[in-house]
Amino acid sequence: MTDATPALPRRRNRNWIWVFAALGLMGATALGVNWAYNAGQPLTDDEFRAARQRWGANRPADYDLKITRAASYASSDGTGGTTVDKIDVSVRGGKVTGFLLNGREPEPLLTLDGRRNIDEERRQRESYDIDGLFAAIEEFIEMDRRENRRTFMRARFDKKDGHVTMFTRQVKGKRVPHVQVEMKKVN
User: Fold this and answer.
1) How many helices (H) and strands (E) are present in the chain, helices listed first?
2) What are φ and ψ of residue 124, in 5° steps?
């Protein structure tokens, strides 16, 4: 006896469509979340003023900072990249007493006639305490307003004392500086 049942037509496997649909949905979700986060978190004048006031009222006299600063650059030959510096700052009695750039003392600054410019060194080092970081952010805000430049700035501040914990400024989609700050109070 022979089996006379006709062969059923073979069904095409279309499961691959679901894989690509899921990948597309995950990609769109990732882009949407990133856009919503960045668009929803710009630095406002009120937030900046409140953090600065909190810092003025609650600032410790002695603290250490570990700052990571990343900055993009473009060379005249068309190449570009990012420099990353690690800065250690010690503040005692409200004054910068220690400053290391990438684990070493920075090179001395010289005047045009070759003498060490201690005043300029001190001024530059003091711009890396918390007051200096607030002043730098304020300078960026004022410069962008003066030059009518559209930028995107985002900052985070400590909830208790108001110190800067993160600052990013973007010009035309490129992060110009990005600063991460870890502060340790010293007793």
Assistant:
1) 4, 6
2) -65, -40
Residue 85: left if φ>0, alpha if ψ -120 to 50, beta else—which one?
A: beta
Q: Is residue 65 part of a domain?
A: yes
Asked whether residue 175 is assigned to any structural domain, the reply reads: yes
* Contact status, residue 69 vs residue 179, Cβ threshold 8 Å: yes
| Residue 121: its H or E element | helix 118-126
Range of the domain at 66: 43-185
18's tokens: 């679901």
Over the stretch 37-91, which tens digit does the pLDDT of each residue have?
655 578 889 999 999 999 999 999 999 999 999 988 777 887 888 889 999 999 9
How many domains, in total, are found in the chain? 1
CB neighbourhood size of 169 (10 A): 21
What are 76-125's pLDDT values in tens digits? 887 888 889 999 999 999 899 999 999 998 888 888 888 888 888 888 88
Residue 64 lies in a domain: yes
Q: What's the pTM? A: 0.71
Closest to 134 (Cα-Cα) out of 161, 98, 105 = 161
